Input
Amino acid sequence: MIYNFKSIVHKEGNRAFIKIPFNVWEKCGQKGLIPVKVEISDISFECKLVPKGNGIYYIPVIKEVCKKIDFDNELDVHFKIIDGLSRINSNSPYSQEHSIRKIDGITYIKQPHNGCCGQTCLAMLAGISVEEVIKIMKSSKHQASISKVIETLDYFGFSHKKPAYTKGRNVQLPKCCIINVRGENKSHLSIYYDGIYYDPTQGILPVYPYENLISYIEICV
Output
């Protein structure tokens, strides 16, 4: 069933949202974080409705959509509930038996833009361009969350383990992993392979301050 209404987009700091003008619990018969497909002014995207209590929900509006809509006028909004958000790896041509490549070395790639460290790490692992990774992830600058990185590893058919948190300890890293390090303003992703660090911004490094290490994802090679 498609639910339709008119509304405006509100901003709170760097976030934008649309308040649904009816009780979602009563009208849709669902509670919790509800996955939906939304259409605003012929622009479609998927998200999870954000509960605010007592059946009141917000639609979070992603940055790409914000750039294309009119904040000053009332908009036509449509949404339907779906079984789950489309995953990056849902239509992958790869599998763990036939991954995109065997990781037997890393060719360094410098990130083309600030905020693309995750995409650049995945490009180094997969042996493809950063632009190709961005297209697969549908995520540009500052959008490569750990969950999206893991989904993309699955898309490429790379066998991996769950993130391991080091809590500032000096640990023995596995032969190949994505490391999550503490930066000045936010965390930063790099590749560790066979004793060498491949940092998308700083280059190839023989050592890394272990106290800045937050976690790592082991890639099974």
In short: The mean pLDDT is 90.
